[in-house]
Amino acid sequence: MSEAPLATVPVFKTLQHNLLNMMGLQRTCAAIYATAFACSLVLCFAPIPVWGVIGAALAPTVCIVLESVMIYLTIRRKFGIRALNSFGEPAA
To answer: Among 57, 71, 55, 64, which Cα is nearest to 7's?
Structure first.
């Protein structure tokens, strides 16, 4: 199994964030980040007492993936741009 798709999540998130800001969707981007922040707060307090170190690692990971998916879906819905197909390869 390749680690490349997971390693590139922050890169695509930054590019997608820049696209939303350049297209005038700063409020949408801010709402997505506020949602991810709320998710981070909840997940930092919930799984850590139960799972310890694993919960501490899992909480921000889930929030980063959630944030990336929300930004991707927003771009796909607003502009019809599909950056990746289901296998992590560039869409044709």
So the answer is: 64
Can you name the residues that pair with 84 across neighbouring β-strands? 90
Q: Which residues, including other chains, have CB under 8 Å from residue 78's CB and lie 6 or more apart? A: 23, 25
Residue 92 lies in a domain: no
- For residue 66, which of 32, 90, 89 has the smallest C-alpha distance? 32
Domain-located, residue 86: no
Residue 16 maps to a domain: yes
Predicted pLDDT at 78:
85
Flag whether pLDDT at 34 surpasses 90: yes
Long-range contact set of residues 7-11: C-beta below 8 Å, sequence gap at least 24: 8/88, 9/64, 9/65, 9/68, 10/64
In total, how many domains does the chain have? 1
Q: Structural domain of residue 67, as residue ranges?
A: 10-79
Let me know: does 43 contact 65? Beta carbons within 8 Å: no
